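Treating backbone geometry as a discrete language has practical consequences that deserve illustration. The amino acid sequence and the backbone structure tokens for this protein are reproduced below.
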Amino acid sequence: MKGIKNTFEKKFKMSHTLVHILNNDCPHCLEGKVFNEKNIFFNIGFPKMNPYCPHCQYKFEKEPGYFFGAMYVNYGLTVAQGIGTYLIAHHFFAETFDLRIIAIITAVIVLMASFNIRLSRLLWIYMFKNYSI
């Protein structure tokens, strides 16, 4: 019975991971914040991260260059947003590929850049979180 309970608890914790990522929660204690900003979605400029969790002192940047891998996550998010924007926008134009769609895709990518940086770093931190605890 104990094995079933532990499996259920792990699945329950894993199902809330996306909520914790979007709430900017510390991956270790789920109470501290990764970024200094109160709202990570609508800030302009480069993100200001806490070096350590204010609650449990978990170090977010494991080593120098730790977040270089987050650039690849950011690239994937940007490509997905560009493709999604095209799939939505092309229905509003008579031609399959109208050059005005490029301006729309560019505007969406530029407006979402600050959010993508924050989200990619949070995803990167959570990908390398120790889930065995």
Summary: The mean pLDDT is 83. The chain has four helices and no strands. Residues 100-127 form the longest helix (28 residues). The helical segments are 2-15, 17-22, 68-89, 100-127.
